[in-house]
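Justification of computing resources. Each target in the renewal requires a structure prediction run like the one illustrated here; the chain below, 320 residues long, is used simply to show the kind of job we budget for.
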Amino acid sequence: MRIAVDLLGGDDAPAVVVDGALRAFGADPDLRLLLVGPAEVADELIAMLRPDDRDRVAVRPVREAVAMTGDPAALVRSDSTIRAAVAAVAEGAADAVVSAGSTGATVTAAVLGFGRWSGVRRPALVATLPALAGPVALLDVGGSLEARPATLARHAVLGAAYAAVVYGVSEPRIGLLSIGTEAGKGDRARRAADPVIADQPLPAGGRYVGFVEGYDVALGSRADVVVTDGFTGNVLLKGIEGAYAMAGGPPAGGGAPRAAALLGVAGAVVVCHGAARADDVASGIALAAHLHRRRAIAAVSTLLAELTGANRITDTEVTA
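Resulting structure tokens:
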């Protein structure tokens, strides 16, 4: 597998990206890297490898990075590392993209470079949390900040398919994050999304369990997938990460979420936190490799396509 790594993505790039790429490279003998960034940075990484391993690394020289601020659409039109990394996958020179750079720019570059899946207006970032009862997929955690009912309903479909494909969950349970489990709880978007999700078919035999609360994300006993908007999901994710740190680490058997997969575009994209450390970057590369090995993006897309005709949720169908 060939993973395109954005060398200039992240607050502490390129140093932590180089370190993380080296860790991922050493942990997976089947891994090949396409380093996208300044040639001298790539050469520094390659020089640290054993001579026999250097043919597992290729370089695409790009000098411009996307800043963490600014208009993502305007930024990715420049000759930036994230745009070049996405282009490499689109051209067949790599199988997946990993970046710790601007999430907005990464999502925009992926949409422009790969195109969206049919029926997906807002791609979602999904992170997996090590809950007490088993892993919980949380989406969206920052792909889109809007909380429209149709978007939440589509996230439920994406999450069910992801849990089934990536983690082999049979008949995944889907919950909608709110401030209480009783009917009628939450803001207008969640009250409107609740009956839509309940009425729509879900892939892989998924079933909707209704509203869930924040503690259900950490417990994992009520839902395998928790759906929310990108703003709320990002805040919750970072809050849980902070709680793990205060408690001395996540539950036994599961690591803290260090990267998120982008669902809804026709290419494999993994986004790491902007403040990623080397082990975060290594985890993101490992996730990209896992997605590629399982042909996860194609499999999730296929599950969604099988629902075509029975599950057409659009932004005009639910307007609350």
